[in-house]
Amino acid sequence: MKYTRRTFIKTGTMGLGGLWLTGNAEIQQTAQFHDPYEIVEIGKTGIKTTRLCMGTGIRAGGGVSNLTRNGHDNSVQLIRDIYQRGVRMFDAADSYGTHTILGDALKIYPRRDFTIFTKIWFATRNAERLNINDIVNRFLKELQTEYIDGVQLHCLTTGSWVTELSDYMEAMDILKQKGVIRAHGISCHSLDAVKAAVKEPWVDTCHCRYNPFGPRMDDTVENVAPVVTQLHKAGKGVISMKIYGEGTFANDPEKKNESLKYLLHTGDVDILDIGMDKMSDLTDTEERIRLVNKVSA
């Protein structure tokens, strides 16, 4: 059965409110209801898509990930099943090896009806500068699309990336002006990199490692949270990753619930990027968001 926004709302409980405390983060909430398929804008990019995103980089690196291990046809079908259930945001990266899987899966749907983000692994062993145009052109072919909604520089680990990667930024800006990409930004693996993104006008979107417990984050929750708030206030699209601590507490239902609740109600996160390599990854999250709404009512 296609699990639409309407059926989700019918089975959920309307209304949220009160004060919620987790760890050392305190959040004042207003009455609201969340479902994974609500349409949100990513920062100020004008890109509107589902809050819930299918991440394709589980156990990924060097062009291999769980989706590639599961077999091309199996993963194509999974993506189509997830699309039919309501997800319209899909996150990839060159290093995940999932471009061709996404391209084959999504080519049967109208291009305007889904959103694709991907990332460029800019580091090379011999330190040669990459040709961004060639890389993005390859991405277009692999994804079977005429444009990509978001392209990010992948896995930034220092605060000096603004100067070190300025030529890449300029090339990506030209592609944005041409309409080849709709937004550009970064995927962060250090708090200094996020701090630099707050002040950098070039950044449209930022992938941040963010959950209320700390595993696989760039610093403590107390240090990361205010920077993410600054990032969002600066108009950047905030995409949260490592929501379940990269699987660290994937088998702890209470922590998973708390993480979803925290991220949904900070007001600073636009997109929840959750790795999915089986349908239960999606249905489990659906149930937990419903539970969060019931508990908070």
What does this protein structure show overall?
- The protein has a single domain (5-296), classed as NADP-dependent oxidoreductase domain (TIM Barrel).
- It contains eleven helices and twelve strands.
- The chain has helices at residues 5-11, 66-69, 72-85, 99-106, 132-143, 161-164, 166-177, 191-199, 221-233, 253-265, 279-296, and strands spanning 18-22, 25-29, 39-41, 48-50, 52-55, 89-91, 115-120, 148-156, 181-188, 205-209, 237-241, 271-275.
- The two termini are 27 Å apart.
- The model is unreliable at 1-31 (pLDDT under 50).
**What is the oligomer described by this structure?**
single chain
Sequence stretches where pLDDT stays below 50 over 5 or more residues:
1-31
**Number of spatially distinct domains:** 1
- Indicate the structural class: alpha/beta
Strand order of the largest sheet: 5-6-7-8-9-10-11-12
CATH class: Alpha Beta
Residues in helices, as a percent range: 25-40%
Q: What's the helix-strand series?
A: HEEEEEHHEHEHEHHEHEHEHEH
**Largest sheet, described in full?**
8 strands, parallel, barrel
Q: What is the CATH T-level topology?
A: TIM Barrel
In a few lines, what is going on in this structure?
This protein has 297 residues and is of the alpha/beta class. It contains 11 helices and 12 strands.
Topology:
Layout: H1 5-11, E1 18-22, E2 25-29, E3 39-41, E4 48-50, E5 52-55, H2 66-69, H3 72-85, E6 89-91, H4 99-106, E7 115-120, H5 132-143, E8 148-156, H6 161-164, H7 166-177, E9 181-188, H8 191-199, E10 205-209, H9 221-233, E11 237-241, H10 253-265, E12 271-275, H11 279-296
Parallel strand pairs: 5-6, 5-12, 6-7, 7-8, 8-9, 9-10, 10-11, 11-12
Antiparallel strand pairs: 1-2, 3-4
